[in-house]
Design brief:
The structure is a homodimer of 210-residue chains. With 210 residues, chain A is of the alpha/beta class. Helices cover 43% and strands 16% of the residues of chain A. Chain A folds into two domains: 5-75, Orthogonal Bundle (Arc Repressor Mutant, subunit A); 83-194, Rossmann fold. The first copy, chain A, is globular and about 60 Å long. The first copy, chain A, binds a DNA duplex (22 and 22 nucleotides) through helix 3, strand 1 and strand 2.
Chain lengths: 210, 210
Amino acid sequence: MAISKPTAERLSRLALLLEQQSEENTPITSAEIEVLTGWASHTIRKDISSLTKTSGIATNTGYLPCELAKAIRETLGFAGTEQNCCIVGLGRIGSAFLDYKGFAESPFTIRAGFDSNVNRVEILKADFPLYPTFKMKEIIPRLGISYAILTVPAEQAALAAERLIDCGITGIVNFTPVLLPAPPGVEIEQVSILDALGAIAARRSINTKE
Amino acid sequence: MAISKPTAERLSRLALLLEQQSEENTPITSAEIEVLTGWASHTIRKDISSLTKTSGIATNTGYLPCELAKAIRETLGFAGTEQNCCIVGLGRIGSAFLDYKGFAESPFTIRAGFDSNVNRVEILKADFPLYPTFKMKEIIPRLGISYAILTVPAEQAALAAERLIDCGITGIVNFTPVLLPAPPGVEIEQVSILDALGAIAARRSINTKE
DNA sequence: AGTTGTGAAGGTATTCACAGCG
DNA sequence: CGCTGTGAATACCTTCACAACT
């Protein structure tokens, strides 16, 4: 049975949340998840019920975080396998991710960084190797990278995205303000401060109107 | 007539898009917007039809970008008035916004930056004033700031958010990986790389399954 | 008791198809 | 004619209420 888009997105965030606080594997109820996320407990239960594998997850005092997170990851496509990412553009925003620890418990790992400025590539330090941009075509397939985090200056965004797709990248998180066209088979997620502010303002103007 | 949430969010992004490329005010058709955004042209027309003021926007060759953007901003609450924001936390991510030019054409303006480290406040340069954190309570109401961009380290996020709300902030763009509880009347938008990657992976696992 | 799990009902958003207008 | 604008139909998601389980 197909899983709906809103459900998939909620489950994905839920998995991250569970992975973050997975030190203790004490059961968590749908009511507790409601407090943490703001989603109604029915919604959460319904979402969970659409997982392909549902045995050994629920007890009479709630869901087991580890098993639930694992079940979500399985249903959403990546069973145990790490999802490899790269950072493209090591300016202010890009280099801010070099020492970001949040990836540790997630299924995503940064495997490489790219920048057209060779100086930056040599000076900056990270837990993963940094390369000049022209090596993308060689490195990306070799390391099995399928996701890119795009943090180049706005004027280079379109070209960089095109090249990445050409290298076999199938998912781009776009931190530039440029709206990138998404060819079939490639998913692009815009992450923009202005969009975020706009979304907040939009929601507010609805709530105050009723 | 109330406007739906998805519609409001689409309109908000559309306004940003129009404002970005507003040099020429040549008409743009719903079909062209479809190419740029990926939303069906019906959806766009329906969204636009729900605006409160619809005169002088459409011609027989498309919509006039400037008037359309203006009409959207009016319907969504802020007619002409600038929306004031502040940045809280001037570490790697926060300071990356200091010279971000994208706000220029948007209805949002950054009015202040805050950091608990007094050194940073004194050394960093920006187009707006920087203050030590303890001055928030004084500055935020004085400058009429209602939105905050939260870029402090994860362990300070919860406390910082609480204080901001206490100062009268009603919208927070949360760049930390911490999931913040949103009290009534306050809108919080999580902007996280892991969420973005998760959303992409989730959408992909749906598309490939059918 | 307290939970999860789920068919059925209800509400919302999207899509369609065509009328209306410049 | 090409475009927008919009009621009606469809599809979708969420919510409810209660059964099933521990």
